[in-house]
Input
Amino acid sequence: MCGARRRPPRARRTPTDDPRAAPPREGRGAHVARTPLHARISEDLRGRIHDRELSPGDLLPSESALQEQFSVSRSVVRQALATLEAEGLVRRAKGRGTVVAPRGELHRNVDLSSGLMAQLQQRGARTTTEVLRLEQADPPQHVTALGERVTVLERLRRVDGEPAAFIRTYLPIAIGSALDRAALTDTSLHHLVGEVTGRRVADGRRTIRAVAAAPPLHAVLGVAAGAPLLLLEGMSVDQDGSPVEEFSTWHRSDRIAFDLALQPGAPRTGGAESGTGRPDGSLGPAGGVALGGSDERLDRAIALAEETLAELRAVRRAR
Output
């Protein structure tokens, strides 16, 4: 109609492409109100298993005890237990009841320069890789050592057919342009870089933190939004000290566990957070942890484990 006023178009909402962005949170009461009864039971037991309150081989509360605790019917309890059994967290023991299953997690040594694929294959795990992105782009603000343009490589790592880790790697153009997309599906990145460029990953730093799975990353990894993930970030340099990569790897905490080997060595100046492990600004040993005497090394390892576990619990409580 002539003279009719037009409403301004609404701004389109686009999902963030940064998996580290925190998902929107709602009040805990609203979450509980919408959660089915069987899911509340399975979530409670799942949390106790992940927090080590229930260890492999421990007997779960009986069906009648769970009925009384949650004021639900036996069928609801059995549905919750069936969910946990399908996830591989519990199993039915004839004549005993339901027990916590042995942990099916795989371990990654974060103080080794070798990547996740190489380590898992050495342990006999069946791994596959899907290349989701391989293209040139402007680097984000936190990537400063690789040049004005970089190659962005995003991969999804599966173990025994199940998503286990999402990897985002930034590479110098000279390295990225030499990579073959098909070769990346069955060869580790470090091996391929050495093969096609002659540059070998020799040093670097690593940082570990616990984060919540935010959209759209949670869908890629096959977990619920807000589920706890282990994030490993770092950079690597070659035998000449030149930067090779900067990366972030989000691991499913129910599939992958981190190991840290204690090795004797003098404390370094600088630290992992600054990324300057030596006075000249070059990087120290991968891992980024300054170690002193044996008692100090043990205290640092215990503190690191307790800090990571506390972060995972905080993420789970915030869901």
In short: The chain has two domains: 34-100, 106-318. Residues 8-32, 266-294 have pLDDT under 50 and may be disordered. The beta strands are 90-93, 97-100, 106-109, 127-137, 150-159, 162-172, 201-212, 228-238, 243-252, 256-259.
